[in-house]
Amino acid sequence: MRSSTLASAWRSPLPRPRAALRANPRALIGGLVCGAAVVCALLATALAPYPPGAQDLLGRNRAPGWRDDAGRVRLLGTDQLGRDVLSRIVVGARTSLGIASLAALLSAAIGVTAGIVGGYFGGLPDLIAARLVDMTLAFPTLLLAIALIAVLRPSVGSVIVVLAVTGWVTYARLIRAQVLALREREFVVAVQALGGNDARVIARHLFPNLVPILLAVATIQLAQFILAESALSFLGLGVPPTVPSWGGMINEGRDYIWNAWWIETFPGLAIVFIVSGVGLVGDWLRDRADPRLRL
């Protein structure tokens, strides 16, 4: 009886998502874009009409809609090596989203831990975290990423590590500020006065109040990481050339912009759409998770 009463009294911070999405067309559009990108990333091999690395030098730099001798249509044309642009974009979604998602999770784990420990306990842990944040912020993000990539050598794992190392400070600073304010609130002081240990206070009372800001930061950072991975690949410091990526495709097509504009235009549009979609979904999640924004 007690459990049913509690279940009826509790309300999810994301109530009735379908109704909320219908009431917010922008979030619905963003969700459809993100959903399509996720499907492409998960089913890239099955959805790609041609092998992304298959070359056809006789059919290179063909415009969108070109048919080869076998009658097969290249909807988005071919690149300078005769590879199908659409197939490389579909497979490139796995690279960009996979790297950005893993890097965002890793940076969130590091930053949230540092922010909570430093803000709640203070003292030496807070001092160490603050100095590490200052050291990281002392370098421009892109320059720091380039320097780290030069040391680690370009690879998928290196890009994930570099993005996480340069991105955790955002979580650490915001979470620390929130924890410093929350630990002085009446409900936290009351739990401590009743004998609640630190782990219970953090897990049951502090962390749930950090979810709205975590959602906002995570979505913004995911979009930033997609752009950062594309920038590194464009500079030749990201994933190896054998791995299809949107930034690498833009880099390969820049020398053919006047006679084969589609090689870099369509990957660029893919980046614009997914970043915009992630931003729209992030705004909706933030609004639904924070009760103050629903008043």
Protein model, in words:
This protein is mostly helical and 295 residues long. It has one domain (81-290): MetI-like fold (Orthogonal Bundle), CATH 1.10.3720.10. It contains twelve helices and two strands; from the N terminus they run H-H-H-H-E-E-H-H-H-H-H-H-H-H. It has helices at 2-9, 17-23, 25-42, 44-47, 85-121, 123-137, 141-152, 156-182, 186-193, 198-234, 246-253, 262-289, and strands at residues 66-67, 73-74. The protein has a two-stranded antiparallel ribbon with strand order 1-2. A hairpin with a 5-residue loop joins strand 1 and strand 2. Helix 5 (85-121) runs antiparallel to helix 10 (198-234) and helix 10 runs antiparallel to helix 12. 39% of the residues are buried. Mean pLDDT is 80; it is low at 1-15.
What labels would you give this structure?
single chain; 295 residues; MetI-like fold; two-stranded antiparallel sheet; 1% strand; disordered N terminus
Briefly say what this structure is.
The chain is an all-alpha fold.
Write the layout of secondary structure elements.
Layout lengths: L1 H8 L7 H7 L1 H18 L1 H4 L18 E2 L5 E2 L10 H37 L1 H15 L3 H12 L3 H27 L3 H8 L4 H37 L11 H8 L8 H28 L6
Antiparallel strand pairs: 1-2
Helix pairs in contact: 3-5, 3-12, 5-6, 5-8, 5-10, 6-8, 7-8, 8-10, 9-10, 10-11, 10-12, 11-12
* Total domain modules: 1
- The Cα radius of gyration reads 23 Å
Q: Which strands sit side by side, in order, in the main sheet?
A: 1-2
Distance between the termini: 31 Å
